[in-house]
Amino acid sequence: MRLDKFLAETGVGSRKEAKQLLKKSLVSVNNKIVKDGKTQIDESKDIITFAGEQLSYQKFYYYMLHKPQGVISATEDKRDQTVIDLLQDQDFREDLFPVGRLDKDTEGLLLLTNDGQLAHQLLSPKKHVDKEYFAKIQGIVTEEDVRHFASGFALTNGEQVKPSKLTIVSLDEENELSEIQLIIQEGKFHQVKRMFEAVDKKVVYLKRLRMGSLWLDEELTLGDYRVLSESELENLKVSK
Ligand code: URA
């Protein structure tokens, strides 16, 4: 890659600023001062220093976000706050995006990255990656619903959903409320909400707990995020 691009990507400054810094002989490649930003470097081998400090290059970034309600799963929006707006200035990058969408009123696990290949692998319907949710449901979820979900069924618009694993966590007969966990391997628009609509019930609270091998870190408070650990990332890359 070009040296000025490398300097911009490692946070030294914009390409324009990098040009000035190069002119001031502040940048060296393999111990030689280089002044031309167009110089091609190999970011995996060459040793680049700025003002005597070695720069390390990171191509991909991975953050686990505990998405709160009221924030949309987009990179920018004129009206609403986006999940990218939750990043602190030092973590913001133009190329970060959320892996898939959670509805505005859904909470929970959302991965933010600039790794398009991993995102594709996690979202592709062909890869059957689990998405696990916790939900509060208006209505009493029954064993019949569990069997219905296990065999796959048609939504109210006729769209077919694949078999999923529904677990009843608790039932409050008096208030007609159920708590459930659900594992699906698809990501259709409003899928969980529409699955319960199809059995005449209503999702009143929804939270994503897991995507593939990656569990939401419950230590993260709503709106907080952290870098994925190396093992979380490795496991996610082979996620099923
Ligand atoms: N299913 C939904 O209905 N909403 C979400 O946000 C995620 C899954």
TrEMBL record:
<dbReference type="InterPro" id="IPR050343">
    <property type="entry name" value="RsuA_PseudoU_synthase"/>
</dbReference>
<dbReference type="GO" id="GO:0005829">
    <property type="term" value="C:cytosol"/>
</dbReference>
<dbReference type="InterPro" id="IPR018496">
    <property type="entry name" value="PsdUridine_synth_RsuA/RluB_CS"/>
</dbReference>
<dbReference type="Pfam" id="PF01479">
    <property type="entry name" value="S4"/>
</dbReference>
<comment type="similarity">
    <text>Belongs to the pseudouridine synthase RsuA family.</text>
</comment>
<dbReference type="InterPro" id="IPR020094">
    <property type="entry name" value="TruA/RsuA/RluB/E/F_N"/>
</dbReference>
<dbReference type="InterPro" id="IPR006145">
    <property type="entry name" value="PsdUridine_synth_RsuA/RluA"/>
</dbReference>
<dbReference type="InterPro" id="IPR036986">
    <property type="entry name" value="S4_RNA-bd_sf"/>
</dbReference>
<dbReference type="GO" id="GO:0000455">
    <property type="term" value="P:enzyme-directed rRNA pseudouridine synthesis"/>
</dbReference>
<dbReference type="InterPro" id="IPR002942">
    <property type="entry name" value="S4_RNA-bd"/>
</dbReference>
<keyword id="KW-0694">RNA-binding</keyword>
<feature type="domain" description="RNA-binding S4">
    <location>
        <begin position="1"/>
        <end position="59"/>
    </location>
</feature>
<protein>
    <recommendedName>
        <fullName>Pseudouridine synthase</fullName>
        <ecNumber>5.4.99.-</ecNumber>
    </recommendedName>
</protein>
<dbReference type="Pfam" id="PF00849">
    <property type="entry name" value="PseudoU_synth_2"/>
</dbReference>
<dbReference type="InterPro" id="IPR000748">
    <property type="entry name" value="PsdUridine_synth_RsuA/RluB/E/F"/>
</dbReference>
<dbReference type="InterPro" id="IPR042092">
    <property type="entry name" value="PsdUridine_s_RsuA/RluB/E/F_cat"/>
</dbReference>
<dbReference type="GO" id="GO:0120159">
    <property type="term" value="F:rRNA pseudouridine synthase activity"/>
</dbReference>
<dbReference type="InterPro" id="IPR020103">
    <property type="entry name" value="PsdUridine_synth_cat_dom_sf"/>
</dbReference>
<keyword id="KW-0413">Isomerase</keyword>
<dbReference type="GO" id="GO:0003723">
    <property type="term" value="F:RNA binding"/>
</dbReference>
